Structures are given as structure tokens and as C-alpha cells.
Amino acid sequence: MHNNMVKPRRDTQAIGRAGEQQALSYLLAQGLVLMETNYRRPYGEIDLIMQHGSTVVFVEVRLRRHSDYGSAADSIGVRKQQRLRRAAQTYLKRYARMPPCRFDVIAIDGGKLSWLRNVMG
């Protein structure tokens, strides 16, 4: 019985990794350059950090197989946004001068990918 409880988590993680790989492939095809994946801090994680020209792009990847609970993009609440900002601030400390930056979302809803640019001010 215990193994059945663990399996959905692994499936969810595998699906999440596949979504991140799909998002990365898409963004690379759009001309962005990968800087880092899964940038983790105790207070948050950024799925992808890319460079688009001179702009650092922090990318949150969200995947929903069904729209029963809203869209993938709708699943990014205020608390998640705060955690993303905090992790991004830490990442940006490595620069002597603050580069232009933005937050993008790759939303994958039922297999349809959408790239939402500059979603957090």
C-alpha cells in the first residue's frame, strides 16, 4: 500500500521534468540561451534561467493535463510569485550591475504550449 502512495509523486515529478524539457526546447528554438536550470534556494526555485539578448529571463514552467482546476498560468499565486522574486533577487546578486530582467511563464495546458512574457512587474 505504501508504494501506491509514493508512485503518484514520482509520476508527477516525471511529468514536470518532461514539461520543463519541452519548455527549454521551445525557448532554445526561439533564440534564448540557457543559463541555469532548477535554481534552488530554501525559499524558492526557478525552473529555467535564460538569456534573451541582454535580458535575464526567469522562467516558471506550469503544466496542466486538464483544465478542471483552471489553467496552468492561473496556478501561479501571489505566494509563488513572492518566492520567485526572492530567488531571482538572490541570483541577480552575482552581477556587478543589474542587468535587464523579466519573468516569463511557459504554460502547457493539455499539451498546448503558451509563452507568456513579462508576467510580473
Layout of secondary structure:
Elements: H1 2-29, E1 33-41, E2 44-52, E3 55-64, H2 78-92, E4 101-109, E5 112-116
Parallel strand pairs: 3-4
Antiparallel strand pairs: 1-2, 2-3, 4-5
CATH architecture: 3-Layer(aba) Sandwich
- The percent range for strand residues is 25-35%
The average pLDDT score comes to 85
Q: Rg from C-alpha positions?
A: 15 Å
Instruction: Label the structural class.
Output: alpha+beta
First and last CA, distance? 46 Å
Low-confidence stretches: 1-7
Report the strand count. Answer: 5
* CATH hierarchy class name: Alpha Beta
Task: Give the strand order of the largest sheet, numbering strands 1, 2, ... along the chain.
Answer: 1-2-3-4-5
Secondary-structure element order, as H and E?
HEEEHEE
Total separate domains? 1
Instruction: State the helical fraction.
Output: 25-40%
